[in-house]
Design a protein that fits this description.
It catalyses: 5-amino-6-(5-phospho-D-ribosylamino)uracil + H2O = 5,6-diaminouracil + D-ribose 5-phosphate; 2,5-diamino-6-hydroxy-4-(5-phosphoribosylamino)-pyrimidine + H2O = 2,5,6-triamino-4-hydroxypyrimidine + D-ribose 5-phosphate. It is an enzyme of class 1 (oxidoreductase). This is 5-amino-6-(5-phosphoribosylamino)uracil reductase. By secondary structure, the protein is an alpha/beta fold. It has helices at residues 2-10, 16-30, 67-75, 98-106, 125-132, 147-159, 161-169, 199-210, 219-225, 274-282, 295-304, 316-324, 394-400, 447-453, 462-472, 477-490, 499-517, 519-526, 554-566, 575-579, and strands at 44-49, 52-58, 83-88, 110-115, 136-139, 173-181, 214-218, 240-244, 264-269, 286-290, 309-312, 330-336, 364-371, 374-380, 411-414, 432-435, 441-444, 532-535. Helix 3 runs parallel beside helix 4 (98-106), helix 14 (447-453) runs parallel beside helix 16 (477-490) and helix 17 (499-517) packs across helix 18 (519-526). The protein is globular, with a radius of gyration of 25 Å. Residues 1-14, 388-409 and 570-581 have low confidence and may be disordered.
Length: 581
């Protein structure tokens, strides 16, 4: 390990131009799932011999096959002795080190990493693991600086900007988007705004929505424009729609209350118009109350929900406090070659309290692009976080200071698959082999695939059977959930009549299989003995713990029940024991 580390530190980058080119290719690959899956850490891998690419791959969705394994499978024997280029250090939250194992098993001799992983519990671990296996690992730009390397690193930062900002600021990455006329108006004095920008610009907006976890508007936008806020980009992912309204002075009839295809959340002041809150609930709209409604608290809530990227499509009244509170990171301004005039016509950003031009906010890394007749001006209000300094991990800190225990906390939270205990999630990429009603064993890609499909098992209807097959073949747990939930909303009559009474047992059987057939997961679960496990979803009050601990946390409970069984602390469980947890 020491010899490999020394070689990695002392060896110069042999051909930094080739390295930079291939890293940019890996970053471009990493971005290929945009719009088709919900935002996630973006990984791309290119395996090359000199300048010849022999294999490549990208992470399609959380829970799908890792980019490195795809590239290794594509390269075959040509990968032996080749160089692997990764836009970002692999992030193993599942205990199986699939990326590292794939690269080592393929016999690659060198790995070039664009940037280190920004999440502290993953930072440096894969690099260390690769070096301990004798591979030469170079991190781009740490041994040599040049313009071509700087440009390649910018590509790496850009493709994972949401993850970098989330890690550094503990809020999702937020883009403020607006369209305005050449004289700076977002609507006429009457409020009419359809359309300022061209059809080509509006198509780009659909792409931006597809890259976002959620789209935010204010009450004025709902009242004035009655937007749908759908992506309409041809991809599979649809962002959640969030309406911020202090008073809930909103129309009863609005496109945004249609939740048949995509969820709507209304964020409001605590206690506002309880009768209207009940009306929204009857429509299937989720209402979240805040003691004081403001952009910072809403973004912290979105952070807790695991969101990476938010698109703000609000008017100037909401844009101003969002900017002032520091939650807007990038601006996309579509400028149309039109003049509308009007002393009282609205502008894209309200009052920021600035009285001198020297106080104006300057954008960073500004770019200009012509889209049809319009000009898109984009830039960052805050620089992309530089997380180059290595933050000691919990284990390293414990070595330095023995008084610091690695696992002091009595409560362990898990939620997204990239969390430290992401392997506990039902969305983690661990396959199952489970018997069907005939006793034949079927392989399921994940617990979520199995769970969603079993909503429709036993229903004597062709559409239900087709749905099961569609779920089974879904490329990721996310897509399996999307198919199952969508069918449940559209055709509740196809859901098996006993689902509410058997769903806990279905989840339990899938979890037991997962933690029985994957030894490293079993070891991870047993390592938490003595700790309370909480699924940290703030909105799922059945499987998760809820925003303020009001959730039932059944997923955490089932895992603790399994842990007890594996440790021999309890007899074989039944559904009654789940309910008594």
């Amino acid at each position: 390990m020491a010899i490999a580390s020394t070689l990695a530190l002392k060896s110069p980058i042999l051909n930094h131009s080739t390295d930079a080119h291939q890293i940019r290719r890996a970053a471009d690959l990493a971005d290929k799932s945009a719009g088709f899956t919900s935002p996630h850490p973006n990984f791309g891998c290119v395996i090359a011999r000199d300048s010849n690419v022999v294999g490549e791959g990208f992470l399609y969705a959380q829970g799908a096959k890792c980019a490195e394994l795809q590239a290794v499978e594509a390269s075959g024997e040509l990968g032996r002795g080749a160089t692997a280029y990764l836009n970002m250090e692999p992030g193993d939250c599942h205990g199986d080190q699939a990326a590292v194992s794939a690269l080592v098993g393929a016999g690659v001799s060198r790995v070039v990493v664009g940037i280190r992983h920004p999440l502290q519990h993953l930072r440096g671990k894969a690099i260390q693991a690769l070096r301990s296996e004798g591979l030469q690992v170079d991190v781009l730009g740490e041994n040599l600086k040049s313009k071509v390397i700087e440009d390649a690193l910018k590509s790496c930062y850009a493709v994972n900007a949401p993850l970098l900002f989330r890690a550094a600021s503990r809020v999702p990455f937020s883009i403020l988007k607006y369209a305005m006329t050449l004289d700076g108006k977002i609507a006429a004095t009457s409020g009419h705004a359809s359309w300022i920008s061209s059809k080509q610009s509006r198509s780009r907006v659909f792409e931006l929505r597809g890259r976002s976890d959620a789209v935010i508007v204010g009450g004025n936008t709902v009242r004035r424009d009655d937007p749908r806020l759908t992506a309409r980009h041809g991809g599979g992912h649809l962002p959640v729609r969030i309406v911020m309204s202090q008073t809930l002075n909103l129309p009863e009839v609005a496109n945004i209350w249609d939740v048949s295809e995509v969820r709507t959340i209304v964020a409001t002041q605590r206690g506002a118009k309880k009768c209207f809150q009940k009306f929204l609930a009857s429509k299937g709209v989720e209402v979240v109350e805040f003691d004081i409604l403001n952009p910072r608290d809403v973004m912290e809530y979105c952070y807790d929900r695991g969101y990476l990227s938010i698109l703000w499509e609000c008017g100037g009244t909401l844009a101003a406090p969002a900017i002032s509170s520091g939650v807007i990171h990038q601006v996309f301004a579509f400028v149309a070659p039109k003049i509308i005039g009007g002393e009282h016509a609205p502008s894209p950003v309200g009052d920021l309290g600035m009285v001198e031009m020297s106080q104006a906010l300057n954008l960073i890394d500004v770019s200009y692009e012509q889209i049809g007749p319009d000009i898109l001006i984009s830039g960052f209000l805050q620089p992309v976080p530089d997380l180059t300094p290595v933050i000691p991990s919990v284990d390293e800190t414990s070595t330095i200071d023995p008084t610091v225990a690695p696992y002091e906390a009595s409560i362990i939270f898990f939620y997204k698959t990239w969390d430290k205990y992401g392997a506990f999630s039902n969305f983690s990429p661990h396959s199952l082999r489970m018997p069907d009603d005939n006793g034949d064993y079927i392989t399921w890609p994940s617990v979520e695939h199995y769970y969603q499909a079993h909503k429709f098992v036993g229903v004597n209807d062709r559409q239900a059977r087709d749905c099961i097959e569609q779920i089974k073949s879904a490329k990721s747990p996310e897509e399996a959930a999307r198919v199952g939930r969508s069918m449940q909303r559209k055709r509740p009559d196809l859901v098996r009549p006993d689902w509410e009474t058997v769903k806990i047992d279905v989840m339990y059987r899938a979890l037991k299989c997962k933690f029985s057939i994957h030894p490293h997961l079993n070891a991870m679960l047993l390592s938490t003995a003595g700790s309370v496990l909480v699924e940290a979803s703030p909105h799922d009050l059945f499987w998760g713990g809820g925003r303020e601990g009001e959730g039932l946390n059944y997923l955490g409970r089932l895992l603790m029940q399994l842990r007890s069984e594996f440790l021999g602390e309890s007899p074989k469980s039944s559904e009654n024991s789940y309910l008594s947890l």
